[in-house]
Amino acid sequence: MPTLLLSGQATRHGTRSLLACLPDETIVTAPHAGAGLLAIGPRLLHIARGQGLWAAAISYDAGLDLLGIPSRHAHPHPALVAAYHRTYAAYDHRTRRWTVHGPAGTARTALAAAIAEADAAPSPILAPPAARMATSAVDRAGHMARAQAVREEIARGEAFEINLAHVIRTPWEAGGWDLFERLVATAPGDHSAYIDLGGIEIASIS
Questions:
Q1: Are strands 97-101 and 135-136 parallel, antiparallel or unpaired?
Q2: Can you tell me the distance from the alpha carbon of 29 to that of 197, in angstroms, rounded to the nearest whole number?
Q3: Which of 27, 68, 134, 177 would be 82's cystine partner, CB 3.0–4.6 Å?
Q4: If you average pLDDT over every residue of the chain, what do you get?
């Protein structure tokens, strides 16, 4: 099972998907890390200049943290999570071929073997999902009120764009990879991502 999959379909937005397992290094900050995020910058730049692949997820509140502005809503999630992989594979959607990158060794051999095995296996058939109750952090009236507040703030010139988001919770007995497969099958997008940092899993479609 991969711990990192970044997918960009063959559109004007991107042509490659990237796959990796078992990160060589992970960085997880505390919630509302504030100026501590700046201290991580040199390390991320060093990683970016090296050979390999890194991916990161940044909280919506990270910008406020960097500016020292208190967030209106406290949350337990890290301000930033990042994973660095020396060995990874890239899939070109135009040529439909995989290329494995990284130093020779066990990790590279295992990743190439896993790709070959997956290519030879038939596509899985997903069973219909079980009915689940979902709860939202805000009701319809509250969401509409927030949307109106966003319009007014933009009209005053306080912001150019605001991402209005809220949390939806629902029971999910399977793992994050199963959720990611479900998202890709039911709501595919130009870009998708799955990141597993051990205790923190991110499944994203956009």
A1: unpaired
A2: 12
A3: 27
A4: 75
- What are the backbone dihedrals phi and psi of residue 112, each rounded to the nearest 5 degrees, phi first? -65, -40
How open is the CA angle 166-206-20, to the nearest 5 degrees?
110
3-state SS string for 48-107 = HHCCCEEEEEECCCHHHHHHCCCCCCCCCCCCEEEEEECCEEEEECCCCEEEEECCCCHH
What region, left, alpha or beta, does residue 64 occupy, with left being phi > 0 and alpha being psi -120 to 50 degrees? alpha
Q: Which of 72, 80, 2 is nearest to 35 (CA)?
A: 80
Which helix (H) or strand (E) segment holds residue 5: the answer is strand 4-8
- List the one residue out of 59, 54, 35 whose CA is nearest residue 43: 54
- What gap in Å lies between CA 79 and CA 97, rounded to an integer? 35
Rounded distance, CA 44 to CA 144, Å? 39
Q: Write down the pTM of the prediction.
A: 0.61
Q: Which tokens go with 193?
A: 């991502």
Could you report the per-residue pLDDT of 141-170, keeping only the tens digit for each?
999 999 999 999 999 988 888 888 888 888
Cβ atoms 107, 86 nearer than 8 A: yes
Contact 4, 20 (CB under 8 A): yes
Encoding tokens for residue 184? 């890709």
Residues 6+ apart with CB under 8 A from 53: 4, 18, 20, 84, 85, 88, 101
